[in-house]
Write a structure and sequence with these properties.
- With about 450 residues, this protein is mainly alpha-helical.
- The chain has three domains: about 5-130, MgtE N-terminal fold (Alpha Horseshoe), CATH 1.25.60; about 140-240, Roll (CBS-domain); about 275-444, Tetracycline Repressor, domain 2 (Orthogonal Bundle).
- Helix content is about 65%, strand content about 5%.
- The protein is globular and about 90 Å long.
- It starts with 5 loop residues before the first helix and ends with a helix.
């Protein structure tokens, strides 16, 4: 496989050798081209993309950073954009079409092939996070009465339009999905066998309005790489391939991580500072108010801290461990919800397990902390206070870390959204209240 370093590309540009670079760039795999363009200094990105031929450009543009893709779509000449969209599968063309402004989209749809334009318009009507938003219209569908040799000839005639032909779909005269045939099974069948005789009738399909997270779960559950998409009348609309689902899994995982810390997926490394501030400020403001609430709890024990100032050194230990434990529980439960492992019947068992883990961890960590407090302070009561406070806080962490995402899911909110700030607040309050409360009772 041809490789080319970033430094070499910059050298080609500086020495005005773009035609040589054009030849090298178009021999690269599209994924490698996208990575190189993403990593180039800003002044060379657009120029490097312009060197790609139409076919490669149509493959590369999807893997470019969002900001760069937006800039390309704003500046690209319309004839080139039309040719690129003509090269794309319907699902990819729709993704690009969705990023165009209204005037651009209208012009492009008027100039591309009429059938392609119709398909893109249809796909744009579906929610982008649904099965309809993921599917592509390019499929091989045959009538139930077609014979093996007729089906093979039909595939020969249409293979350039449909990539990755692992299955062909069998439909009736009203386009209702009847079954699927693996290509290997088709090739092994006798010449006169009809589609209805060799198809698999146990069809796994997804409704067009199914959420993309559930679609990804279907791919995991049934260990497949292509699923047909149907409407309410079971009419075949398109298919979803595993490469699209890999992107969904990546996006959903990133989204959950971002939400747990109060960020949006659109906030990237090179997002403008002002845009990042707008996205992060509301979350930090919420954190300010939760921090003030925690501080008010500490304020209740102001006299205790004045008389036993060494407690201030140990307070962050109790709160920090509780917060970490709560975040661990939150991550496990949120992932369980995302993967469909948590159901109505086993939720209580999962919560009980996390509380048990929290208590056991509290006992283990608390015992070590008690020993250290005794060794360094020579005060066994201080060690007992520290140990009991940790057990209490780990219990709280296990309880709220598992309950909050479950409650949010029940209320139809994303379990990852705001969960971490709530859990951190509750474990801080629980940790400070138990530690300072016990210290007031036993050490004053």
């Amino acid at each position: 496989m041809l490789k080319i370093a970033i430094e070499q590309i910059i050298e080609y540009f500086e020495n005005n050798r773009q035609e040589e670079l054009r030849d090298k760039m178009n021999k690269l795999h599209p994924a490698d081209s996208a990575q190189i363009i993403n990593e180039l200094p800003s002044e060379y990105k657009l120029a490097a993309f312009s060197l790609l031929n139409t076919e490669n450009a149509s493959d590369v543009i999807h893997d470019l950073h969002d900001e760069l893709r937006e800039e390309i779509l704003e500046t690209i000449q319309q004839p080139r954009l039309v040719k690129m969209i003509d090269e794309m599968d319907s699902d990819e063309a729709t993704d690009i079409a969705a990023e165009l402004d209204e005037e651009q989209l209208k012009d492009v749809l008027e100039k591309i092939d009429k059938e392609d334009s119709k398909e893109i318009k249809q796909l744009l009507e579906y929610d982008e996070d649904s099965a309809g938003g993921l599917m592509q219209k390019e499929i091989i569908a045959v009538n139930a009465e077609m014979k093996r040799d007729e089906m093979i000839e039909y595939i020969r005639q249409n293979h350039e339009e449909v990539e990755n032909i692992h299955y062909i779909f069998v439909v009736d005269d009203k386009n209702k999905l009847l079954g699927i045939i693996e290509i290997s099974r088709l090739l092994l069948a006798k010449p006169q066998r009809e589609a209805r005789d060799i198809m698999n009738k146990n069809i796994i399909s997804v409704p067009v309005d199914m959420d993309q997270e559930q679609v990804a779960h279907m791919f995991r559950k049934y260990d497949t790489y292509i699923l047909p998409v149907v409407d309410k009348a079971n009419q075949l609309l398109g298919r979803i391939t595993v490469d699209d689902i890999i992107d969904v899994i990546d996006d959903e995982a990133s989204e959950d991580v971002y939400k747990m810390v109060g960020l949006e997926n659109e906030d990237r490394v090179f997002t403008s500072p002002l845009s990042s501030v707008r996205k992060r400020l509301p979350w930090l403001t919420l954190n300010l108010f939760t921090a003030l609430l925690v501080s008010s709890v500490v304020g209740i024990f102001e006299n205790t801290i004045k008389q036993l100032s060494f407690l201030a050194v140990l307070m962050p230990v109790v709160a920090g461990l509780g917060g970490n434990s709560g975040t661990q529980t939150l991550t496990v439960i949120t992932r369980g919800i995302a993967l469909g492992e948590l159901t109505l019947h086993n939720t209580f068992k999962a919560i009980l397990k996390e509380i048990t883990v929290g208590i056991i961890n509290g006992v283990m960590i608390g015992s070590v902390a008690m020993l250290l407090a005794y060794l360094f302070r020579g005060n066994i009561l201080l060690g007992v206070v520290l140990a009991v406070a940790m057990i209490c806080n780990m219990f709280i962490a296990g309880l709220v870390g598992s309950l909050i995402p479950v409650i949010m899911k029940t209320l139809k909110f994303d379990p990852a959204l705001a969960s971490s700030v709530i859990i951190t607040m509750l474990t801080d309050i629980g940790g400070f209240a138990s530690f300072l409360g016990l210290a007031t009772i036993l050490l004053m």
